[in-house]
Amino acid sequence: EDKVVQSPLSLVVHEGDTVTLNCSYEVTNFRSLLWYKQEKKAPTFLFMLTSSGIEKKSGRLSSILDKKELFSILNITATQTGDSAVYLCAGVIQGAQKLVFGQGTRLTINP
Amino acid sequence: KAGVTQTPRYLIKTRGQQVTLSCSPISGHRSVSWYQQTPGQGLQFLFEYFSETQRNKGNFPGRFSGRQFSNSRSEMNVSTLELGDSALYLCASSFSSGGPYNEQFFGPGTRLTVL
User: Fold this and answer.
1) Angle CA B67–A88–B100, to nearest 5
2) Has residue B1 got a pLDDT over 70?
3) Which of A24, B5, B18, B95 falls between 20 and 30 A from A53, CA-CA?
4) What residues in B contact A25, CB-CB < 8 Å?
5) For chain B, how big is the Rg over CA atoms in Å?
6) B89 band by pLDDT with thresholds 50, 70 and 90
């Protein structure tokens, strides 16, 4: 059965800290890995990672995929209170619009 | 461009009833996927529709069904509601289905509470 596991499930840090969120996956016919940020409502897209070892960056956020070890990390540097959210990773099944999500990491940034 | 819209935003039902949720995709998007989000199970894939046909299906009982109309709007139906069906139901639309993955855009969700 396809499975995506995120760790930690919950993380509380102070503003300015750097955090690393982990995502491991076992997905048959794996194509890509996605990261989403979910605040109160709809998840919003952050990154899509398809190739191993190529870092994607967007401001203070960056992410990388290791297809040999089947995991990805999401880094957030110089965290701000606005980064508080649930971060979701999802595996994309080849040839389908089906996503397999992890449980999410609830990140809380305290001022 | 307007985003994905879902109606209603909140619903309260009792056990045994049925419910229909609606999703209007982004204009031009033909694929609509549905997900159930609960605290215990996280986000789980229900099904995906493309051109009025169900193309992919998750591991949910037959009480969960859906359909898509010619204008790409989709409805999801849950019959004989159970307490465990209480969840946030999200739909996501994308330009196409199959082949290279196309980014899915999520709606705000419908929060269903079953009493």
Assistant:
1) 55
2) no
3) B95
4) none
5) 13
6) very high
On the CB side of B96, CA atoms within 13 Å amount to 5
The residue of A6, A29, A49, A98 whose CB has the most chain B CBs within 10 angstroms, and thus the best one to mutate to test that interface, is A98
CA A81/CA B66 separation, integer angstroms? 39
Question: By C-alpha distance, which of A89, A101, A86, A45 is closest to B102?
Answer: A45
* A97–B98 CB contact, under 8 Å: yes
Strands A10-14 and A30-38 turn out to be unpaired
For chain A, list residues with pLDDT below 70.
none
Q: Compute CA distances B42 → A6, A80, A103, A111, B45, whole Å.
A: 11, 25, 5, 28, 10
Of B45, B90, B102, Cβ closest to residue A98:
B45
What does the alpha-carbon distance between residue B78 and residue A94 come to, in Å, rounded to a whole number? 28
CB-nearest partner of B101 from A41, A44, A92:
A92
Dist. CA A5–CA A37, nearest whole Å:
16
DSSP-derived secondary structure for A38-86: ESSSS-EEEEEE-STT--EEETTEEEEEETTTTEEEEEE-S--GGG-EE
Q: What residues form DSSP beta bridges with A98?
A: none
